[in-house]
Amino acid sequence: MKHILLTVLLLAVMTGVATAQVSNSLFGISWNVGLPMGNTKDFIDRTSYSGVSFEGRSWLNSEFAVGGMFGWGVFDVVSYEPIQIDRENYGGTISGTQERWMNTLPIMVSGYYHFGKGDIVPYIGANAGTYYIVETFGIGTVALESRNWHFGVAPEAGIMIGISRTTFLLASVRYNYAFDSGENVAGGDDNAQTWINLNLGLGFTSF
Fold first, then answer.
1. Cβ-proximal residues to 188 (8 Å cutoff; 6+ apart), any chain
2. pTM here?
């Protein structure tokens, strides 16, 4: 809960900054491809093409900007690999046709550094905030679910390519790390989740 309140507070602060700097702001929407890593890959070893994110950023000067980002992404797979379950009502190694899902919802504040101005602008960024992650495991008539809020960080590198005076093509790579929180759907204690997003979208500025 503390993570949620801190994130909301920081988003409110960034919104205030963005309002003050509205003449130098950007709103973007991107399609996100997810590449699972670590525990996420162990649970769902399949690339996700179902993701979207929204972002806003406001320039403090010609190089630095602050803002916020939220989004949604889902990993899913039909797996036949055995899985070890250690839940209160279920335990042991389970084999068979399984449906595995992971929904991720990041809510983050962001800071960016832009390398110059013009029609092609590379940038690096850092995002920090919270992830709401829902893991679902189903086999036959049995369905297990785990819901947790995670504090997380997401460093990012990207490029803005001008299409018109106020429209940019946005392309970026974002590494998501959601720190351990709660219990995963299989009952394990290590519930840190990691994945990489490849993002492609459009940004609209008020320059």
1. 86
2. 0.85
